[in-house]
Specification:
Layout: H1 2-8, H2 15-41, H3 57-67, H4 77-103, H5 124-173, H6 178-225, H7 230-235, H8 237-258, H9 264-276, H10 283-296, H11 302-318
Helix pairs in contact: 2-5, 2-6, 3-5, 4-5, 4-8, 5-6, 5-8, 5-9, 6-8, 6-10, 6-11
Length: about 325
């Protein structure tokens, strides 16, 4: 990030490269930062109600207990297989791109470099070398961590859904006992609220950044394939493919893990299932219980912010013009 800011800040013709890379690396860095902060805070007492509880071993154990039975199969094996294959394919393309750069002849310098200014803050050869090396390292470390993080979120969401089903069974068995049923709803709402609090911040951030990055890359594709110099599109084909793949991964994996742009639908489904158990024999009990379940749940507005940021990202990404098109000229720019 420092290399890009230092080399491209104020360079309007490289804005596509700058924005596209930053929207990629900032997402990976953001997820890494969350994990790093939690690891640092795990050595201190966790404050009750803090978002860090979502990543604490006690919270994980409470969730996984609801998925356990006589056998404990690997949760969400299909999703895990998908992200493993996807990460492997992306990193393999990164490795091929790096190998092509390192093994190319010294005199095989792209023609576009001739047009580059001679007073670049960092010399072009040094910048391209550092960038190609760091791009590979970023993907090699960042993509598996990103995928693993959202796999954990998916397992926690599934476990919460399973626990909400157990709450429904508990309420049905204890119908009429308002104190116990309200206490059980309050407990599960607290657990659900902790996960929702984390996702209300992360999902808008990841979605807005991913939409902006993907829009910028699509805009770049329009410029490349409408350019008279068709060799630019051919020579940047591999770079084009794995940038598309990585940006789609940053967008799709969180959506699959959350199941929506917001996790609030899980509580809505619980409320619907709870209302279906209502019986006329205990009308007053159900009125009070359903009113309490609605009252205790505070809806987060994070997805509204996400939609606003996504619209802005689409507009900004589509209105970047007059850019250098050959990514090889300055190394790969995500």
């Amino acid at each position: 990030m420092f290399l890009y800011i230092y080399n491209f800040w104020g360079s309007s013709e490289n804005l596509t490269h700058f924005v596209s890379f930053m929207t990629y690396v900032v997402v990976l860095a953001g997820i890494s930062l969350v994990c790093t902060v939690f690891n640092a805070m795990s050595w201190t007492p966790v404050k009750d109600g803090s978002w860090c509880e979502v990543f604490h071993l006690d919270y994980t154990a409470r969730r996984l207990r609801c998925l356990a039975g006589r056998r404990f199969p690997l949760p969400e094996a299909l999703f895990l297989s998908l992200i493993i294959v996807w990460v492997f394919v992306n990193n393999s393309m990164q490795a091929v791109n790096l190998a092509q750069y390192l093994t190319k002849p010294a005199n095989a310098t792209p023609k576009v470099i001739v047009d580059m200014p001679l007073n670049d803050p960092i010399p072009g050869d040094i910048f391209r070398f550092l960038k190609n090396i760091m791009d590979f390292i970023i993907s090699l470390v960042g993509l598996p961590l990103f995928a693993s993080f959202w796999f954990y979120i998916l397992v926690m969401r599934r476990a919460l859904a399973a626990e909400l089903n157990l709450v429904l069974i508990f309420i049905k068995r204890n119908e009429g006992n308002l104190v116990q049923c309200r206490r059980r709803i309050a407990e599960i709402n607290r657990e659900f609220g902790l996960l929702r609090e984390v996702l209300a911040v992360l999902v808008p951030f990841v979605m807005a950044s991913s939409v902006l990055g993907l829009t910028v890359h699509i805009t770049w594709n329009y410029d490349v394939y409408s350019n008279p110099m068709k060799n630019i599109a051919r020579e940047n084909l591999l770079i084009n493919i794995f940038i598309f793949s990585e940006k789609l991964m940053l967008l799709i994996i969180p959506l699959l893990a959350v199941g929506n742009v917001s996790i609030d639908y899980v509580w809505s489904q619980f409320m619907y299932a709870l209302s279906r158990q209502r019986s006329f024999d205990n009308e007053k009990f159900w009125d009070q219980l359903l009113s309490y379940a609605v009252e205790i749940n505070t809806e987060c507005k994070g997805h509204h912010v996400m939609l606003f940021l996504a619209v802005i990202s689409l507009y900004l990404g589509r209105n970047i013009t007059d850019q250098k098109l050959d990514y090889r000229g300055i190394g790969r720019a995500l």
